[in-house]
Design goal:
With 193 residues, the protein is α+β, with helices and mostly antiparallel strands. The protein has one domain. Strands 1-2-6-5 form a 4-stranded antiparallel β-sheet. A two-stranded antiparallel ribbon has the order 3-4.
Length: 193
């Protein structure tokens, strides 16, 4: 789940002016309840550009350690020196890392299978994997900018596995703004410095 404090730090880090950042409540006082974070992200959507929102959210993400982190780092060592396309074709061998699709423009897209919508969060075929979102009761609306937190999780692990720096290019679809009809889908680009 996104952290308001970290999102404010990220805003400052990417150069958002203080007169804009000062309009946000940066205190994380509501524990794991998502409502205040949803309001914060709605405000980001109003005050920041889409690119700025993506740059802030790609720094978020839960579960950046543990088994998945170890598996991705081991994958990176095992497949170092292989071309990006070949590494991407092998990523599905890592548990929960999906099967990324290499796009014609050199970006790649990850589409999550998601959880079956049997927990009554959404009416459609899939639901959000965020534990905080699962606490909400219908009806609710959440900007898909919120999904940038999950994209940050994948970006962290993919950078370790692929041995490249990535940037979140887009949040293509989400169960949050489609009532579960579409899965989470993120597009990333390699950053060549």
């Amino acid at each position: 789940m996104p952290s308001k404090r970290k999102m404010c730090e990220s805003m400052r880090m990417i150069g958002i002016p203080d007169d804009i950042v000062s309009q946000f409540d940066c205190a994380d006082q509501n524990g794991n309840r998502p409502e205040s974070k949803i309001e914060f992200i709605d405000m980001m959507d109003k005050l920041l550009t889409k690119g700025q929102c993506l740059a802030v959210m790609e720094r978020e993400g839960c579960c950046k350690g543990g088994k998945r982190d170890k598996d991705c780092k081991a994958f990176g060592k095992e497949h170092a020196g292989k071309p990006l396309g070949e590494k991407l074709s092998l990523m599905s061998a890592i548990e929960y890392m999906m099967a990324p699709r290499l796009n014609d423009d050199g970006t790649f897209t990850i589409t999550m299978q998601g959880r079956a919508a049997n927990n009554k969060v959404h009416q459609g075929k899939t639901t959000c994997s965020c534990g905080a979102i699962m606490k909400l009761k219908q009806p609710f609306t959440v900007s898909k900018t919120y999904c940038g937190c999950c994209a940050g999780h994948f970006m962290h692990h993919y950078q370790n596995a692929l041995g490249v720096k990535l940037r979140l290019k887009g949040i293509d679809s989400s169960p949050l703004d489609t009532n579960g009809e579409q899965p989470c889908s993120f597009t990333f680009e390699v950053v060549y410095e």
